[in-house]
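Re: that backbone. Tokens:
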């Protein structure tokens, strides 16, 4: 066979492959003879069936097999001789004169743009004592206990109520409950409902109206006004634990040393701050890389990435309890994300090759060690990674990506911006 290459639009190419029919037929005959020597057919001993019967049954299948192998072999030879880097899979179709066309996409030729124009604002943050105090308050609230009191309910109290709601004098689904707990100020019920409970005490009854928001999740109630009859069954005051030795022990500090607890919190907050900074910097760097080096991306690769993203989304939704029949997703919604991922993958591969960037074994071990620090038994987590090549490969990929980002940072315009931990975490 011989092949000619035609450049179509964009990354599309076409090879015309001319088939040597005589060579194909010779190979088909050879394989038919091999089959005839061993084939079992009804009414004949093994290997004794007439060749015309063997040919009638098997020649079509064998010819397709031989032709497919020859076509694929010639395609592979043609792309090598023409130095073509195929992206995805070719599509074969008959052409004039017994030839075949192979249509496919090639990888783009990538030349990195002006990376010095990438601008990055890098947050710089130190964990302050106030950050530790806020974290301790969160931990205390998670361990709050409630005690019954004989007084009017106020913010922070947990109130148990019986209620009955009606709209235009008619009860509605979900509008009735017994001994229902409401923590005033927590915001888990409508503000008007919570607010009407403030000032009530055990045994009090009250009737009040509540208007559901227009965007209320229960569409049949959205925008409507309900009248509630409420009776307070009990009022409970919240009590948060003191930050003492018992509290420290409950959080895993065996000797109850509060100073050690604060040090552990500081370490954990610093680790999380580092991750947040890395994530923000990485996003800016990669966005800058995309802007500096616009490229065409093979549609085949984008389509495969779309499918992979959709399958992952479906798997995640099923894991959360959704039935597959209720999941209505089209892979088209993943088009922008898929295109971005493919584009970044191609650009980063180029950087790895051009700059000879690798993931050092010591770097991989350091990253695995860092992952492990947030677990009770770090050595067990490290062993878990190193027991499986796939898990370790994932860690290596993260290190490689980090090294690429660091190299890009060396080319970019980086401005360090002091900030607070709360701002970094998005709490202000």
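Recovered sequence:
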């Amino acid at each position: 066979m011989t092949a000619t290459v035609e450049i179509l639009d964009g990354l599309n190419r076409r090879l015309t492959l001319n088939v040597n029919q005589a060579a194909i037929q010779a190979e088909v005959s050879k394989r038919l003879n091999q089959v005839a020597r061993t084939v079992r057919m009804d009414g004949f001993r093994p290997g004794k069936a007439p060749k015309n019967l063997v040919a009638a049954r098997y020649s079509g299948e064998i010819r397709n097999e031989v032709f497919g192998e020859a076509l694929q072999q010639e395609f592979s030879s043609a792309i090598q001789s023409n130095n073509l880097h195929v992206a995805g899979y070719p599509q074969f179709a008959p052409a004039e004169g017994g030839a075949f066309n192979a249509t496919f996409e090639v990888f783009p030729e990538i030349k990195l743009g002006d990376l010095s124009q990438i601008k990055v604002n890098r947050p710089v943050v130190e964990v302050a004592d106030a950050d530790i105090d806020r974290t301790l308050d969160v931990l205390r609230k998670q361990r709050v206990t409630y005690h019954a009191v004989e007084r009017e309910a106020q913010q922070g109290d947990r109130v148990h109520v019986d209620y009955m709601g009606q709209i235009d004098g008619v009860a509605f689904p979900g509008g009735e409950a017994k001994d229902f707990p409401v923590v005033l100020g927590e915001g888990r019920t409508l503000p008007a409902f919570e607010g009407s409970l403030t000032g009530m005490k055990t045994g009090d009854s009250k009737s009040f109206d509540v208007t559901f928001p227009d965007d209320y999740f229960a569409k049949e109630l959205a925008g409507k006004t309900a009248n509630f009859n409420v009776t307070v069954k009990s009022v409970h005051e919240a009590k948060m634990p003191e930050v003492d030795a018992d509290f420290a022990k409950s959080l895993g500090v065996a000797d109850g040393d509060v100073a050690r607890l604060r040090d552990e919190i500081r370490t954990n907050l610093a680790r999380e701050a580092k991750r947040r900074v890395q994530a923000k910097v990485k996003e800016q760097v990669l966005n800058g890389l995309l802007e500096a080096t616009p490229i065409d991306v093979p549609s085949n690769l984008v389509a495969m990435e779309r499918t992979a993203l959709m399958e992952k989304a479906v798997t995640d939704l099923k894991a959360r309890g959704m039935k597959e029949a209720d999941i209505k997703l089209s892979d088209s919604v993943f088009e922008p994300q898929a295109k971005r991922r493919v584009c970044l993958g191609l650009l980063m591969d180029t950087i790895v090759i051009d700059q000879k960037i690798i993931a050092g074994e010591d770097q991989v071990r350091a990253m695995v060690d860092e992952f492990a620090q947030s677990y009770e038994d770090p050595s067990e987590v490290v062993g878990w990674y190193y027991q499986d090549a796939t898990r370790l490969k994932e860690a290596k990929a993260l290190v490689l990506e980090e090294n690429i980002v660091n190299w890009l940072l060396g080319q970019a315009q980086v401005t360090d911006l002091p900030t607070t931990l709360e701002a970094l975490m998005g709490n202000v």
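The chain has three domains: 2-105, 145-239, 255-424. The chain has a mean pLDDT of 91.
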